[in-house]
């Protein structure tokens, strides 16, 4: 059994990963200031500290075997209008966390990164060697943390893995997606199915894709959690490993909407809208590095199953 500190463990992905760690028999402490997380989302059996990551030196000690870091603000639009909030928390908080880890002698880190580090890609299938050119402060803040981690590995022997997620969806047991405001496609379409939203906007239907709508890579949150546990096992001292996490398959906006119709049996009215600036036609991950280095392969790759799990959670936690 190992002891892990999970920052941001009251949020969507952090809570599911914490639950997986507990099920594997590990001791888990969650740190979250509940600014975007939910107390109800804390897994049973985890210790909880309500605090900021900026104050990591006050609660991190040598008894921990590793840190899994999810504590970040993640709203792209908000980051554009309030960039200082993102630099302070995502970058400043992570810098404080790295310093506290060094002082405490905790030498293993798994970091929740993002596909937003790539910006507007010119290629459809993204690898870890693809150009990183974030187009907003959120993506830039995550890329800055990746650079900080790389330096920490070289200078101080940290063993670190950054996992760059694409579109996370689905639910796991009592844990699921609930953001305020919600910006992700699957929960937004499910809100229409629940009668909480009149229609779903389709931003552009003239892209060079089979049905004219954007194609994205969706990954089940439980598959994502399994990748984090694998990363803990394969982190190597002095190395910063970066892995994309996705299915390697793309689903269009219209495919997602149609799948929600099939799963829920509800009518989903669509409203045509103009393209959004910065939306690439296709954004799909190559997860080859995660497969080769972590031994990880997504096991829940079917869109119907991902949507069905998300629908079950949405019905239990409707507004």
Explained architecture:
The protein has helices at 12-23, 76-81, 83-104, 137-156, 185-193, 221-234, 253-264, 288-294, 303-316, and strands at 3-7, 27-31, 47-49, 66-69, 108-114, 125-126, 159-165, 167-169, 200-203, 215-216, 218-220, 240-245, 251-252, 270-273, 282-285. The strands form 4 sheets. It has a 7-stranded parallel sheet with strand order 3-2-1-4-5-7-12, with helices on both faces. By secondary structure, the chain is an alpha/beta fold. The chain contains 9 helices and 15 strands. Helix 5 runs parallel beside helix 7.
Shape: globular
* Helix content class: 25-40%
Q: Tell me the total number of β-strands.
A: 15
What is the number of helical segments per DSSP (H or I, 4+ residues)? 9
Elements, N to C (H/E): EHEEEHHEEHEEHEEEHEEHEEHH
The main sheet comes to: 7 strands, parallel
Overall pLDDT score: 93
Q: Stretches where pLDDT falls below 50 for ≥5 residues?
A: none
CA radius of gyration is 19 Å
Structural class: alpha/beta
Kindly report how far apart the N and C termini lie: 38 Å
Beta-strand content bin: 15-25%
If strands are numbered along the chain, what order do they take across the biggest sheet? Answer: 3-2-1-4-5-7-12
């Amino acid at each position: 059994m190992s002891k892990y500190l999970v920052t941001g463990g009251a949020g969507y992905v952090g809570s599911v990963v914490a639950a997986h760690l507990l099920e594997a028999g590990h001791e888990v402490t969650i740190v979250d200031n509940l600014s975007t997380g939910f107390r109800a989302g804390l897994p049973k059996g985890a210790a909880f500290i309500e605090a900021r990551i900026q104050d990591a030196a006050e609660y991190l000690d040598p008894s921990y075997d590793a840190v899994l870091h999810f504590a970040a603000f993640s709203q792209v639009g908000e980051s554009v209008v309030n960039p200082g909030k993102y630099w302070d928390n995502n970058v400043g908080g992570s810098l404080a966390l790295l310093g506290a880890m060094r002082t405490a002698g905790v030498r293993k880190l798994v970091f929740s990164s993002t596909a937003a580090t790539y910006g507007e890609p010119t290629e459809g299938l993204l690898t870890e060697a693809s150009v990183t050119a974030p187009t907003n402060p959120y993506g830039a803040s995550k890329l800055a943390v990746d650079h900080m981690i790389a330096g920490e590995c070289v200078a101080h022997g940290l063993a670190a893995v950054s996992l760059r997620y694409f579109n996370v969806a689905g639910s796991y047991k009592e844990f699921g997606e609930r953001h305020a405001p919600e910006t992700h496609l699957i929960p937004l379409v499910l809100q229409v199915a629940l009668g909480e939203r009149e229609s779903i906007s389709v931003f552009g239907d003239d892209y060079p894709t089979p049905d004219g709508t954007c194609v994205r890579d969706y990954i089940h949150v439980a598959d994502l959690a399994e990748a984090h546990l694998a990363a803990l096992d394969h982190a190597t001292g002095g190395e910063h490993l970066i892995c994309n996490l996705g299915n390697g398959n793309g689903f269009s906006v219209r495919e997602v909407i149609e799948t929600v119709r099939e799963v829920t049996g509800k009518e989903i009215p669509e409203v045509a809208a103009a393209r959004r600036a910065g939306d690439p036609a296709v954004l799909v991950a190559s997860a080859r590095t995660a497969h080769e280095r972590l031994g990880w392969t997504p096991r829940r790759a079917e869109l119907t199953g991902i949507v069905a799990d998300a629908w079950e959670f949405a019905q239990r936690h409707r507004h």
